[in-house]
Specification:
Blueprint: E1 2-7, E2 18-24, H1 32-41, H2 43-50, E3 60-64, E4 67-73, H3 82-99, E5 103-106, H4 118-129, E6 135-140
Parallel strand pairs: 1-6, 2-4, 2-5, 5-6
Antiparallel strand pairs: 3-4
Helix pairs in contact: 1-2, 3-4
Length: 141
């Protein structure tokens, strides 16, 4: 695994990268990166059409187009837990292995509104992807 932290806009990464971000299982997508992904990809509508059977589930990764939606809490007002983020990252990893995805671009996932510490999230990513040949581009402005 190669984790690269860069000052870059998540939405300007080159083609070939999948994106990942955190959401709640009610698919509210009302703030931050989730809101921007909804605006660009019409993600809320796609999630509601394709993933309605996953509503209420936490700790999963819903891949739509080239975006992994990491479901880390039930509703937007809930507090997220590191264990749910870790479960969702593991689910994303398994899907990446199945689809031969080797490039991922992410913000500091869970570190905005959710209040996670980046050092802990980075350690989770390192542990999960340690045995996989993947490039993870961490974008921040």
């Amino acid at each position: 695994m190669n984790l690269i932290e860069t000052k870059n806009d998540l939405f300007s990464v080159p083609q070939g990268y999948y994106l990942a971000h955190c959401i709640s299982s009610d698919f509210s997508l009302g703030a931050g990166v989730a809101k921007k992904i909804d605006e660009i990809f019409n993600m809320r509508e796609k999630l509601n059409k394709q993933s309605h059977s996953f509503k209420g589930r936490v700790g999963i990764a819903l891949c739509i187009d080239n975006v992994f939606n990491l479901v880390i809490k039930k509703v937007k007002y809930d507090s997220a837990q590191y264990s749910d983020l870790e479960d969702a990252i593991y689910d994303m990893k398994y899907q990446m292995e199945e689809k031969y995805i080797t490039k991922l671009a992410i913000p500091h996932i869970g570190c905005g509104k959710e209040g996670f510490e980046w050092s802990i999230v980075r350690n989770i990513l390192t542990d999960v992807f340690d045995d996989m040949n993947v490039e993870i581009l961490v974008c921040s402005l």
